[in-house]
Amino acid sequence: MLPLFFPKICFGCKKILNSGERTICVICRHKLPLTHFHTTGNRAMLKVFDGQIPVKHATSLLYFEKAGLTQKLIHLLKYKKGLEIGVFFGKWLGAELSEISEYKTIEAVIPVPLHKRKFKKRGYNQVTGFGKAIAQALNISYQDEVLLKKSASGSQVFKNRVKRLFNPTEVFTCNNKHLIRDKHILIVDDIMTTGATLEASALQLLKVEGVCISFATMAFVA
Ligand SMILES: [Zn+2]
User: Fold this and answer.
1) Tens digits of per-residue pLDDT, 83-102?
2) Ligand 1 centroid to 28 CA: how many Å?
3) b/e string for 93-118 if b means 16 or more Cβ within 10 A?
4) Domain coordinates of the chain in residue numbers?
5) Ligand 1 midpoint to CA 92 (Å)
6) Helix (H, G, I), strand (E, B) or coil at 207
7) Secondary-structure breakdown of the chain: helix, strand, coil percentages, each rounded to the nearest 5
8) Ion ligand 1: residues, CB < 5 A
9) Which fold has domain 33-220?
10) Could you report the per-residue pLDDT of 24-74, keeping only the tens digit for each?
11) In sequence order, what DSSP letters do the residues of 85-96 get, joined into one string?
């Protein structure tokens, strides 16, 4: 009878999870809009970077739709401490990537960082669980002391207003360069919209000799 005292509920529909279910119930899981980019070779995400920066592979577990289930889950992860959602997505994507030869050359996972002020306010980086689970599935290291964020960006409204006034590549900085020299790095983030954040992150790491880059996100805005 013990489990009845603390029933785990689905982050998607709030129904009580069955004993075999974790984080998200099977019904919600089947509703999630998977991109299948990595299994089908779909270049929709990769082609955003064509002619901008060299990127080996780019994939996302899910499509992001306004008011959809993906948005709901990522909102819970970012603002309501739904940390196990990130781990759930990371285990899922990591298991799939570990079966694909192109992704087997990746040697380290690096998350898009939060500025330390924002980190302090939120208490966590929402990408950590996702990135660590992928690193574990690929049996490689997770490095969160390489890419750092220099300046905190303000609210979404403020960010939009000043977007054209600053160069996003100046927002990130690369430390501990010796850790990534000559390595194939997977940069991970929660949502890819324009690709500007991933690009700015990659530009810093690509300054290090011999580095090549791939991207993986939880969600992709098509
Ligand atoms: Zn559900």
Assistant:
1) 999 999 999 999 999 999 99
2) 4
3) bbebbeeeeebeebbbbbbbbbeeee
4) 1-31, 33-220
5) 16
6) coil
7) 40, 20, 40
8) 10, 12-13, 25, 28
9) Rossmann fold (3.40.50)
10) 999 999 999 999 999 999 999 999 999 999 999 999 999 998 889 999 999
11) HHHHHHHHHHHH
